[in-house]
Design goal:
With 131 residues, the protein is mostly helical. The protein contains five helices and two strands. Strand 1 and strand 2 form a beta hairpin.
Length: 131
């Protein structure tokens, strides 16, 4: 039982690190440490809260919203940090999935998030950005 929990926490840290590495590569504010901690923390909250009747993992999503709001900056002609905030929100969901033992779902979602961060960013730059 305890080895399962340790493996869940290690998987959470690893998947968070994968997300964070991509963000570090792009020199974003939230990177390796932030994403690893968000996934790990969400997993731990899920593991601990699962012992209580009536646990609602949506509460983690609400809590992560405060962190996400803190990374969004509005300037006169632009908004920055929305992708980081959305990424942290997905990272929290990955942690919940691991804590709930939905390992395939968590891994697949992490891979999709990396695809979105890396691949869709290139598409946005080449197709949609005005120079």
């Amino acid at each position: 039982m305890e080895i399962d929990i340790i493996l869940q926490l290690l998987l959470a840290t690893f998947l968070g690190a994968l997300l964070g590495l991509e963000r570090e590569y792009k020199k974003k504010e939230a990177g390796l440490q932030t994403y690893s901690l968000v996934v790990l923390g969400s997993c731990l909250f899920t593991l601990v809260s699962a012992k209580f009747i009536g646990f609602n993992p949506a509460l983690i999503a609400v809590g992560i919203g405060f962190i996400g709001a803190g990374v969004i900056f509005h300037r006169e002609d632009s908004v920055r940090g929305l992708t980081t905030a959305a990424g942290l929100w997905v990272a929290a969901a990955i942690g919940i999935a691991i804590g709930a033992k939905f390992y395939f779902l968590a891994i697949f979602t992490a891979l999709l998030a990396i695809l979105i961060f890396a691949g869709f960013g290139i598409i946005e730059e080449k197709v949609f950005k005005k120079e």
